[in-house]
Amino acid sequence: MCGIFAYVGGRKDAISLVRDGLKQLEYRGYDSWGIAYPKNEIALLKEVGHIPDKILEEPSSLALGHTRWATHGGVTRLNAHPHLSSNKKIAVAHNGIIENFEQVVSKYDLDMKTKTDSEVIPLLIEYFLEQSYSFEESVRRSLQELEGTFAIVAISSAHKELIVARLGSPLIIGETKDGFFVSSDIPALLGHTKKVLVLNDGEMAILSGSLELKNFYENVSLDPSFIEIDWDVSTAEKSGYKHFMLKEIMEQPKTILDTLQGRIKDHQPLLPELEGINPKRIIIIACGTSWHAGIVGEFLLEGLAKIPVEVEYASEFRYRDPLVEKDTLVVAISQSGETADTLAALREAKKKGAKVLSICNVMESTIARESDIVLYTRAGPEMGVASTKAFITQLTLLYLITAHYASKNKTLSVRQVQDMCDDVLSLPRYIEQVLDEKGQIEEIAKEYFESRNALFLGRGIHYPIALEGALKLKEISYIHAEGYPAAEMKHGPIALIDVNMPSIFIATRDTHTYEKVLSNMQEVRARGGKIIALATSGDRRVTELADHIISLPRTRYALSPFLVTIPLQLFAYYIADLRDCNIDKPRNLAKSVTVE
Ligand code: F6R
């Protein structure tokens, strides 16, 4: 969603630094952009649409920029950020929502020109400046008036400072020898520095040649604690691939090994974070792809560790007054760690006394910081909007958590847990084999890229992967796709089957529902439907029923969801590429969904 990038320091190319930073934030999704920098008044560049490759070159050592994903007010140049005060001497970029902006406007009799809630901020700062407060104090007083969520960056044409603040929306400061960068996320900073300060709620920083950190409610100074990020800048670049999505699909063998690093010892899971946590029940909360990972987790944890599990849409959990007993562990799964629905559900769970374990990819993200325990997925920055490598690492952690509790609860023997650990270490090799066959998947995609609908069907532990396959296809290719447990097909979706409707079946031999899936394939075939089947290598029975086969190495039940995920990601990717879609930035989608 919206992104902020800003610079203050000794360099004179602040405008192009900010433009480049906004380009790095493009993957989050946006519909307009803007940059502000001080001159006599504030100079402003802003447009609807894409950030241009070239931008006005004018020396400046201070600039702020914003990419907007519209919430309040339409997609217009006027509504694009940064917003200015009436005298055009203050500029502010804002992420989040100011819930009480109408009250503030009438309390201070402010003259709003746009349809956004954000414009209230520069107007309020201007109001306090006119009361003879300093710039810093005017910003601080303004922040105290605001309710809702925000990350803001403010500049004034009369001051050489960048003032930033956070309440509920992420904001990161990066320190370099030439000055400070400010960004909504870490990947955009990696080209400049790995030394970052993640602002906490209620904090503001005054940046010029130095940094001063304060709590804006109490006006007390704080000690900044910078951390070193271990992400590599190349992980946020395409490295010769046509799209981030393809690069991230291809990276998955490595990301699995990164996730496992130091978490298996002597053939046993090593998750010290879970010591002393012995849940009687687990509730998994998540959205979208992360929710699909949660359902795989349900099959693994219930089936192998014998812990009752429920998986809830985070957006529903929050509003249905759920029962959370003592000894319930709530597991929040979120790649970004900033998803508003998941964050709200997490807070609700904590209010009800639950312990919260989060599975997150982004270090120091809000969900990670508000959880009792965090397990990081270590997928590195995921730049494609469609989640791929983050999903596979979420599965990896859920698998390890299962091995941990299966060992602890003695629901599997020492030998079986050892096998689980050995198996997952060999998983990257199997995934390499599937990736090596990507040309074959591209050929199949060539036959179906003009389809208007598609069904994805799988049973048991493959059912959430069918949902994920359908989600991947619809979000990046705009083909309508539905995922179903295969047996549900005959309770309605079967009406859609005809020669124009491909059904993608997950029909590998590694689950006890294999025979049943074959029957479901027969039902589609009997109605003239086209079948693409994911099958275990050498399976003649599936070959006879399907129009196209994607062969997968034989593996064990618990690893099967990992392997079947890969061809579905590639299938969606090639179809979208053949349709010439904007794969890394699909329309209307945002990487980090920070509104409820
Ligand atoms: C789909 C996708 C989304 C996210 C969802 C939750 O490819 O990426 O469905 O999974 O918005 O996001 P996180 O995991 O960041 O909480």
* Overall tally of structural domains: 3
Low-confidence spans: pLDDT under 50, at least 5 residues? none
- Class derived from helix and strand content: alpha/beta
The CATH superfamily of the largest domain bears the name Aminohydrolase, N-terminal nucleophile (Ntn) domain
Number of strands: 27
> Mean pLDDT, rounded to whole units?
94
Helix tally equals 17
The dominant shape is globular
What is the percentage of strand-forming residues? 15-25%
Distance between the termini: 12 Å
Give structural notes.
The protein has 596 residues and is of the alpha/beta class. 34% of the residues lie in helices and 24% in strands. The chain has 3 domains: 228 residues, Glutamine Phosphoribosylpyrophosphate, subunit 1, domain 1 (4-Layer Sandwich), CATH 3.60.20.10; 198 residues, 3-Layer(aba) Sandwich (Rossmann fold), CATH 3.40.50; 148 residues, Rossmann fold. It has 17 helices and 27 strands. An 8-stranded antiparallel β-sheet has the order 3-2-4-1-10-9-11-15, covered by helices on one side. The chain has a 7-stranded antiparallel β-sheet with strand order 5-6-7-8-12-13-14. Strands 19-18-20-21-22 form a 5-stranded parallel β-sheet, sandwiched between helices. The model has no long low-confidence stretch (mean pLDDT 94). The protein binds fructose -6-phosphate. Fructose -6-phosphate (F6R) binds next to helix 7 and helix 14.
